[in-house]
UniProtKB/TrEMBL annotation:
It comes from Bacillus thermotolerans (Quasibacillus thermotolerans). This is Phenylacetic acid degradation protein PaaD, thioesterase. Gene3D superfamilies: Hotdog Thioesterase. One of its GO terms (molecular function) is acyl-CoA hydrolase activity. The lineage of its organism: Bacteria, Bacillati, Bacillota, Bacilli, Bacillales. Keywords: Hydrolase. The keyword Iron does not apply.
Length: 151
């Protein structure tokens, strides 16, 4: 039987490396998403809306909101330094994002087991809730930061 590592300690010990890994995510960087907070099972990011992010109606394209929500989901679920990959998401759109606005997304861990974790994500602009996401992640055995399995 494998010894259970203290993931909170791994987060604290390797915070800088975990944060750097999440900040280097290529697609998020392409869009201009900025990670603003990374906690144990939580993450927040923001995105300034540019003209190319709008749909035919002049509001933020749903794919842009999804990308922002998915990014904080990835950051929160990988915040313990353990490789975690998405299994499913469900997104609900409630209000449009507007040109020139700043969107913020926050992911919060609802429950975590050794293999699966569940997250709630909110996308907002100026205090207005635009969208929510519920997401499930599969937690692999390996870590992407160095861990001492003997401790």
């Amino acid at each position: 039987m494998t010894k259970q590592l203290d993931e909170a300690v791994i987060h604290d010990t390797h915070y800088d490396q975990i944060m750097e890994t999440m900040q280097k995510e290529p697609y998020a960087n392409h869009l201009g998403i900025r990670l603003t907070d990374l906690g144990k099972g939580t993450a927040s990011a923001e995105l300034v809306i540019e003209d190319y992010m709008l749909n035919a109606h002049g509001t933020v394209h749903g794919a842009v909101m999804f990308a922002l929500a998915d990014y904080v989901f990835a950051a929160a679920s990988n915040s313990y330094g353990k490789v975690s990959v998405g299994l499913s998401t469900n997104m609900n759109f409630m209000a449009p994002g507007l040109k020139g606005s700043i969107l913020t997304a926050t992911a919060t861990e609802a429950k975590k087991t050794r293999r699966i974790a569940w997250y709630r994500i909110a996308v907002e602009s100026e205090g207005n809730l635009l969208a929510t996401m519920e997401a499930t992640v599969y937690r692999k055995e390996q870590f992407f930061v160095p861990v001492d399995e003997d401790k």
